[in-house]
Amino acid sequence: MSEARRRAFITSVGDLLASWNLPHATGRVYGLLLVTEEPTSLDAIAAELELSKGAVSTSVRQLDSWGLARVIPQPGSRRLLVEATAGIETLLEASHARARTLIAALRDGEDLVNPGPAQDRLQDVIGLFAGYVDVGEQLLSRSGVEEHRKNRSRRE
Predict the structure, then answer these.
(1) What is the tens place of the pLDDT at every residue in 19-67?
(2) How deeply is 84 buried, as exposed, middle or buried, from its count of CB atoms within 10 A (0-12, 13-18, 19+)?
(3) Distance between CA atoms of 84 and 100, rounded to whole angstroms?
(4) Distance CA 21, CA 5 (A)
């Protein structure tokens, strides 16, 4: 992959995740991790993307919380290495976890509304997110992601 194409890819991933309300830097870090062969240090990420180490550290924490990156401590050192986790299924799983949290919060509010337009609207939103999770789960099960995940867990 040419350097120009690599940078364009990293920027595209940054733009995509920014559209999901994650910082552009976080998306760029993820893009870089996706095209980096081996786990890499925060310093190397900061140097390549011309970001501060603090911005990289924050980005890595966000990616880790979404299940998109894995932090690998180095024995006897404070140095950390980072790598992107497997494919898009990780992003979908993380998104589902957040959607389930939203669904639970919305369901907690069901007793706050009387029958009528507000209740209908709340039910529609709950249904939308529940449908999203259901369809995503079907896609994941059809693609054999669960078996892949089990095999990966055994190796780690």
Answers:
(1) 878 899 999 999 999 999 999 999 999 999 999 999 999 999 999 887 7
(2) buried
(3) 24
(4) 24
DSSP 3-state assignment of 20?
Answer: coil
Proportion of the chain above pLDDT 70, given as a percent: 88
Identify the CA nearest to 156 among candidates 94, 77, 60, 85. 85
Furthest C-alpha separation in the chain: 62
Sign of CA dihedral 101, 20, 94, 88: positive
Measuring CA to CA, which residue among 95, 44, 93, 91 is closest to residue 69?
A: 91
- The pTM of the full predicted model, rounded to 2 decimals, is 0.63
3-state secondary structure 24-56: HHHHHHHHHHHCCCCCEEHHHHHHHHCCCHHHH
Place of tokens 């389930």: 100
CB 31 within 8 A of CB 51: no
What is the radius of gyration, based on Cα positions, of the chain? Answer: 19
d(CA 18, CA 26): 8
Kind and range of the H or E run holding 2: none
The token pair that represents 148 in the structure block: 């892949």
